[in-house]
Structures are given as structure tokens and as C-alpha cells.
Amino acid sequence: MLPSFHRAPGSPPFLIAGPCVIESEAMCLSIAERLRKIGAELDLPVIFKASFDKANRTSVSGFRGHGIEEGLRVLEKVRHETGLPVLTDVHLPDQVAAVAEVVDMLQTPAFLARQTDLIMAAAASGRPVNIKKAQFMAPPDMAAVLGKAQAAAENAGVADPQIMLCERGSTFGYNNLVVDMRGLVIMREMGAPVVFDATHSVQLPGGGGDRSLGQRQFVEPLARAAMAVGVDGLFMETHPDPDSALSDGPNMVPLAELPALLRKIVAIAALN
């Protein structure tokens, strides 16, 4: 069951977490089961996230995933065996219908925040949608994106559209991102729940030439700061061994370190 996306004062945020990409069924099930236990221990609503395709890899040699058919099969199994709601990315409007049949929540990638057809198709599906703010967009720009999504949902007859806006850092020169915490406040004032993507915000896009790098040591301080500012949800990619992950390893949180980090987040959330 999906949580309430608007966080009540003093309550914990919802957590979107999982590996960057579906590497294998066994790994996804293992990570999801651990996340389920962490969520139960901390009274933290968890949504399992994994991508069936990473369509925006830096290099053609980067691992993209196993494709939509296999990816949806794995996500459906995770949902059935763990009871966790599941989320995945959609990159094209014609993927939306098939994906929405299986997952509980859709996500649109940051690079595609200005792709009107994709945003509107996702919102019209009736599923909750997490819209990532593009690295090249200012927070106020997301009002227009939110307007597109809300209009599409209304036109499709969606009774209670649940559209979230997600901060994942802004381009700062070459191969670097920064987070302006004012943006979280600005987007929350638009009336939509706001999610902070703590792991992609420490990415160094293209920093490795044919791949992106990352600074995972800054995930915790940024997540703590975002929670103190006031967000409704957190997004964190996690992996048992990030250094061997097939995608985005440098900015992922080691799974074994996640409980301690989340305990700090829950404590901060209780204060605001």
C-alpha cells in the first residue's frame, strides 16, 4: 500500500529506495526484503525502486538493464513476495500504459522533465508520479511542469492525481552538481509533495569521461539538511556493494550503512 505523500508534522518521510538498475531478480528480492525490514523497524514507509532500462547512460558501453518485459516481471515478483509498493522510470510515452499495469508509482527522469508528452502520459495513467527536476532547470520552472501533469490528469478523469516534484541537484559548471536548499521550499509551496534525491545529488555527471562519478560521502549531510528544511520523501539508491554496481555505484549508499543513516533522518523529521 502506498503511503500518504504529504508528510504530517513530526512524522517520518516516505522512502523511495533500491538499486539504480535491475541487475538480477535475486539481488532485487534481497535488497527489497532488507528494505522492508528496515522500514518496519523504523516505522518508515518504503517504496522499492529499480529501473528496467537506463536510457541516459554516458557511454554506449554502459549497462542499461534487461529491458521492459524482464524488468516488469522482476518488479511484479518483488511486489508480490515482499508486499512493498514498487516504482520504476518511464522514458517514452508509449511505455507508460504497460508499466502502469504493473507498478504502483511512475517516475520521469530528470533529463526528460521538459518532455511534455511523457509528463502528460505519466500523469494521465492514474498512477502517482515522481517528476524529477532537470539539472538545468530552476526550481520555479517546475510550476509549469506540474501544471502540465495536473492538466493531463484532469483531462484523463483522474480523481485524485498524486504528482510529486523531486530535487536532484543543479548543474554547477562542468561535471558537478550543487543543491540549493531554497528550491525545496519553493517547490513545496507549489502544493505538491517534494522528494529529495540524496544520491543523484552527489553525482559528478560524466566525471569519469565515459561514465559518471559520485561523492557518496556527502549523501548523509545533504539528506539530513533536506529533512531539516522540510521534505515529504527521500530518494536513495542503495546496493550491497556499490563499488561493483553496474550503474551509479559511486553515489549509492551501501545497504549495510542505510539503517544508521535513516535513524538520523527519522530523528530530524520528528522535530519538524
Automatic annotation (TrEMBL):
Top-level taxon: Bacteria
EC number: 2.5.1.55
UniProt organism field: Erythrobacter mangrovi
GO molecular function: 3-deoxy-8-phosphooctulonate synthase activity
One BP annotation, GO: keto-3-deoxy-D-manno-octulosonic acid biosynthetic process
UniProt similarity note: Belongs to the KdsA family.
Protein name per the record: 2-dehydro-3-deoxyphosphooctonate aldolase
Catalytic reactions on record: D-arabinose 5-phosphate + phosphoenolpyruvate + H2O = 3-deoxy-alpha-D-manno-2-octulosonate-8-phosphate + phosphate
SUPFAM superfamilies associated with the record: Aldolase (SSF51569)
GO cellular component term, pick one: cytoplasm
Gene3D superfamilies membership: Aldolase class I
UniProt xrefs under NCBIfam families: KDO8P_synth, PRK05198.1
Pathway per the UniProt entry: Bacterial outer membrane biogenesis; lipopolysaccharide biosynthesis; Carbohydrate biosynthesis; 3-deoxy-D-manno-octulosonate biosynthesis; 3-deoxy-D-manno-octulosonate from D-ribulose 5-phosphate: step 2/3
Principal location: cytoplasm
Entry-linked Pfam families: DAHP_synth_1
Coiled coil: none
Keywords: Cytoplasm, Lipopolysaccharide biosynthesis, Transferase
Location of the DAHP synthetase I/KDSA domain: 11-261
Enzyme class, UniProt record, top EC level: transferase
Annotated localization: Cytoplasm
